[in-house]
């Protein structure tokens, strides 16, 4: 199969010598650094897999809601002065936290979410309009949104370019795309990968950051290339990190945490919080190119 980078179009890749879950080979584009898992003849789980009862309880937790709300609030405040209108579409709206924050800032909110479990949770928590479905070229949604958000969505999809192009088509002239995704180019991820390549007694921390649910791992260069090819300019990046309270609850509920492991988690997240150069995610604000 011929490789073609979905971010920059290059046909040259580097094998990372690592397979997520010992099944999905990881490679990187030589030109822009985009990481991708080779997933062939594999049936992806349904949209409700992520929205199990455990994750529903996590996203309904007031502490987690407040942690996420604080982050979202900061980014909505950044775009309020530059969006051409107040119509806002939250693609992959999940439990509805982002929608609720956007509504409080004065945006006219609509959520779009493929998971029936997440839609039900969102409607239970917030009295806001949410549609179950996917963003598509031929859907009945308006084409004049002032802003569209993709919070932790693009890394999951099979075709990132199609997703970004469809977002562009649903935005009005000068509309804003706001997205978040892991940042493959950060120092923290490079350190983890370097340790993994050393293969100390079978210990490979790459297992913690590459997994089936995430097909693509963008560098800032890869994201810039993709957005510009799809009709966006004025691309701005902001360093972010995984949310501590959400991660703590996931570890406790899915894995169980000994006091020692919880202490280690606290130390790691304290470093992430106080040492910005150890961020592991990116938030991107891009403007639809005026024609």
Structure description:
The protein is built from 9 helices and 11 strands. It is globular. Strand 5, helix 4 and strand 6 form a beta-alpha-beta unit. The chain is of the alpha/beta class and 291 residues long. Helix content is 35%, strand content 24%.
TL;DR?
The protein is of the alpha/beta class and about 290 residues long. It is about 35% helix and about 25% strand. Helix 1 packs antiparallel against helix 8 and helix 2 crosses helix 3 (about 95-105).
Summarize the helices and strands and which ones pair or pack:
Blueprint: E1 13-20, E2 24-29, E3 35-37, H1 53-59, H2 62-79, E4 87-91, H3 97-104, E5 108-113, H4 116-125, E6 130-132, E7 145-151, H5 160-170, E8 171-182, H6 187-198, E9 216-217, H7 220-229, E10 232-240, H8 244-254, H9 259-274, E11 281-288
Parallel strand pairs: 4-5, 4-7, 5-6, 7-8
Antiparallel strand pairs: 1-2, 2-3, 3-9, 8-11, 10-11
Number of helices: 9
Helix content: 25-40%
Largest sheet: 7 strands, mixed
Strand content: 15-25%
Give the N-terminus to C-terminus distance in angstroms.
36 Å
**Integer-rounded radius of gyration:** 19 Å
Choose one word for the global shape.
Answer: globular
Extended strand count: 11
The secondary-structure element order is EEEHHEHEHEEHEHEHEHHE
Which structural class is indicated by helix and strand composition?
A: alpha/beta
Q: Give the strand line-up of the largest sheet.
A: 6-5-4-7-8-11-10
Ranges with pLDDT <50 over ≥5 residues?
A: none
